[in-house]
Amino acid sequence: MLKRLGRTVLAFLAAGIAASAHGAELNWARSWGASAQAPLTGLGPLSPQINISDATLRQVVRLSGGGKQLRIRFTNEFGTGPLAVGAAHVALSGPDGAILGGSDRILTFAGKTSATVPAGAPLVSDPVDLPVQPLSKLTISLYVAGKVETCTCHGTAVETGWMAPGDQSASVAKPSGAAPLPVRALIAAVDVASEAPVASIVMFGDSITDGVGSTPDADKRWPDLLAERLVKRGGPAVYVSNQGISGNRVLNDGMGVSALARFDRDVLSTPGLRYVVVFEGINDIGMAFAPKSDTGPLAGFIKQFGGGPITADDIIAGYRQLIARAHERGVKIYGATITPYEGTATAAPAGEAARQAVNAWIRTSGAFDGVIDFDAVWRDPAKPSQIRDGWHMGDHLHGSDAGYKALAESIDLGLFR
């Protein structure tokens, strides 16, 4: 009896060692991301009163890198009540909300096909075997069994999603009765496992990183285009996670909590993290130095953002905090210069002076591990305080497809080795 027990214990130990060895062969990295936000009435497209109840959300994401396994991070991090996950599936994307036959995988959570996510928490699925190629598209289907009191979202989707009644998470075709979903809802990341070495870059920014102005469903944001360049380069895989939030600021909350507040969650917790690019600060400058008026068209908008007066030195101090926190984790952090904004409603001479001061510090201080000079790429040679014609969407702030392509192509890939 004791001998049999001993052999059983040894068998379990051997199995555990084998499992550990198998797990050690896989390298996890973030292949897609979208920063979680609380819905803000008046500042974003999704209000707290959106009706998600007994409904299936079907959303498409494009991966930056491939692998043999993946896991999905769902989110209730800004929810005010529990989130009831009735079922969840992942599959390779087909056209117009359909999935490719034979690619559907049921997602589980600690081995179960349903889960309850407490308010304020994320939910990471168990790993699932689904080989994916770099730049492939996934369809994530989530059945919400109960009512969502407050939806944790990402306000700028740049990719069509759908919401349909009932549990249609396993449907191969687009769910019946599906209506467009203009935001990312309740999903935050896709992590992919590869047997080869792999690293993640986080693009940490605001609406210009988020892709405002780019063509929807076309993957024309500058992080998307950089991911394509990295895949084409070959060599050790480097995945790209876009953690831009439209309206985000370094120092104060607005649309999304401040960069300083979300850095640990959106950057430092990233699997495979090796690099971060910080491209943020124009909203701090715009809100702080905009022409002051209690009755003008911007008065209510600026008041909703809040926050006291700031200076260029305040923004620089914020950057120093991000740099210190990245270096504590052994992560390389690169600074991107702030692009021009003359021609916008928030532009002011004092704001332009602050932008120039911040950019001078980024270029010359040596505090960042490297500099990506987006200002030099976008500025009009005839009037450097403005973006050159054709490279903004018409608002003198956000890029066009051509403008985002110029940013992506300007980046030295040698920064990511």
SSE arrangement:
Elements: H1 2-24, E1 27-33, E2 53-62, E3 67-76, E4 83-92, E5 105-106, E6 115-117, E7 121-124, E8 128-132, E9 137-147, E10 153-154, E11 161-165, E12 179-181, E13 184-185, E14 187-194, E15 198-205, H2 207-210, H3 222-233, E16 237-244, H4 259-268, E17 273-279, H5 282-289, H6 299-305, H7 312-328, E18 332-336, H8 349-364, E19 370-372, H9 374-378, E20 379-380, E21 383-387, H10 401-410
Parallel strand pairs: 15-16, 15-17, 17-18, 18-19
Antiparallel strand pairs: 1-14, 2-9, 2-11, 3-7, 3-8, 3-14, 4-5, 4-6, 4-9, 10-13, 11-12, 20-21
Explain the overall architecture.
This protein is an alpha+beta fold and about 425 residues long. The chain is about 25% helix and about 30% strand. It has helices spanning about 1-25, 205-210, 220-235, 260-270, 280-290, 300-305, 310-330, 350-365, 375-380, 400-410, and strands at about 25-35, 55-60, 65-75, 85-90, 105, 115, 120-125, 130, 135-145, 155, 160-165, 180, 185, 185-195, 200-205, 235-245, 275-280, 330-335, 370, 380, 385. The strands form 5 sheets. Strands 2, 4, 5, 6, 9, 11 and 12 form a 7-stranded antiparallel β-sheet that branches. Strand 20 (about 380) and strand 21 form a beta hairpin. The longest helix has 23 residues, at about 1-25. The protein is globular. Mean pLDDT is about 90; it is low at about 1-25 and about 40-50.
